[in-house]
Amino acid sequence: MSSDYAFPPPPSFTESDSEHDDDGSWRERDSGDARAAVSDGEDVEFTAGTAQRLSGNSTADAFGASVRGARGIRRGPRDVNDDDDAFTSYFARARIAVCEYAREDAEEIARELRALGARVTDAYDATCTHVVTPFKRGDDYLSAVEDGKIVVSYAWIEDCVAQRRVVDAGEKALYAPLTSANGVRGFDALFVAVDGYAAQEKADIIELIEASGGTFATSVDDRTTHLVCYRAGSETYARALTSGRVAIVNHAWIEDCVREWAILPTRDVKYTKMGVELDYERDLERERRARVDAEHELDVEERRAVSLQELLDAEEREREDLQNQLNDSESQRMALRDMLEGEADNREGVHEQFLRTRGDVEELQRLLRQSEASRSEQESRIVQGEEERRSLLRQLEQTRGLQTNLQTQFTHSRQDLLTQLEQRLQQIEETRSELAEERRGGAGKRAVVDK
Fold it and tell me: Is 429 helix (H, G, I), strand (E, B) or coil?
């Protein structure tokens, strides 16, 4: 990134809500022969087909051709909240190159970025901070990567606007440009079903499936090759498990396939876990990091308290020294007063000396008062530091309690899922036994009839 643009680090990413069109209806995602509307709390149904990143003409040279599994460019004005200073400030300092898109799409993206306050160009140069491109190709892309600039797809802009904050450009595989428009080699033979995920998460997974060249299967059938599953125990999961030919994976598999642009092995332990297990592990790791941070802050506060105590001890020693000096001055004053009473002839000179000494005593008293005030301030800071330390200790205990609860919930949930699965498998075996008994009975009856 250019030194002229010192951007703050983007906050951690969370899933964005689906978009609304200007009339309040849900924006539809193009999907070849059919469209799929996305709304909160609803499952997303995609028919077989190829989602399109770009609209406009179909000329490949204009990069307006169909692109599997990518988001379409949103048409029409989008609301922008100028009161969000941190968000608008980020884009106000950005110079973004929009490359490799069809002209109409590039104009729509540029309009949206300008509404955010960004400066937009149609070609990359060293002053650019970002590059928005659909594919990992072209001189603009290569130069931006070599210069260490932020290279993203339109999906990143879409989620930034939807969430009104700068999302992490590396959080989603959708945010990276596609390696090619032809999909991952061999992925066109895959039929991938999705089960158990929330609406927006499911929509993102479907986009990844189609971006890689695969086909989204609305249910597990004879053609289905993979099931991206969030939680075991559903009918879809049981059907895939009992089929013996459907690979059951989590969302990390499809994300890594798109990032690596290759079909990755499904037996890796990273991919065989359920999606809910990945979420539990992520939450546990977040709690662990929070606990480590709290312990670090506690150590810092303890060191600060020790430092303040040392300062207080130094002030106390200084106060004692000033008190000793005051006592010495008082002794001198008393001695001078005795001399004044005994030496009437030299009274005027002694009196002047006495006044000078009294001025010194008053100065020492003033210094002593300042020392007392400083000591009180240091004591207040120590008390405040002790209160903060106790607060951090309470937060640490709460964090440990949350971590214990999460671990307990995870253990119980896993045991319940395994129990349900065993019960379902037992039911299937009983059904098979009953069918076998019926077939044997039918065979016996046919034999009797034949005789």
Answer: helix
Six token digits for residue 334: 């008393």
Q: Give the pLDDT of residue 73.
A: 60
Residue 165 is encoded by which pair of tokens?
A: 């904050």
Alpha-carbon span 56 to 51, nearest angstrom? 14
Q: Which two tokens stand for residue 343?
A: 């030496």
Average pLDDT, rounded, for the chain: 80
Instruction: Sort 356 into a burial class: Cβ within 10 Å, 0-12 / 13-18 / 19+.
Output: exposed
Nearest Cα neighbor of 52 from 37, 73, 36 is 73
- How far is it, in rounded angstroms, from Cα 12 to Cα 315? 46
Count Cβ atoms below 10 Å from residue 13 Cβ, excluding itself.
17
Is the pTM higher than 0.70? The answer reads no
Distance separating alpha carbons of residues 121 and 5, to the nearest angstrom: 16
CA pair distance 46, 51, nearest whole angstrom: 9
Of 236, 197, 250, 188, residue with least CA distance to 48: 188
Q: Judge whether 104 and 56 are in contact, CB under 8 Å.
A: yes
The identity of residue 155, as a single letter, is A
C-alpha 271/C-alpha 286 separation (Å) is 20
List the beta bridge partners of residue 228. 194, 249
Question: How confident is the model at residue 442, as a pLDDT?
Answer: 84
CA–CA dist 147, 412 (Å, integer): 49
- Give me 65's structure tokens: 């051709």
Q: Which of 61, 119, 62 is nearest to 93 (CA)?
A: 119
* Alpha-carbon gap, residue 368 to 173, rounded angstroms: 67
Of the candidates 363, 286, 365, 250, the one whose C-alpha atom is nearest the C-alpha of residue 319 is 365
Interatomic CA distance for residues 421 and 380, integer angstroms: 61
The secondary structure of residue 229, as a DSSP letter, is: E
Phi-psi region of 420 (alpha: psi -120 to 50; beta: other; left: phi over 0): alpha
pLDDT in tens, 20-75: 333 333 233 333 333 333 333 333 333 333 333 333 333 233 333 333 334 556 55
List, in sequence order, every residue forming a beta bridge with 95; answer none if it has no partner. Answer: 119
Pairing of strands 215-217, 191-195: parallel
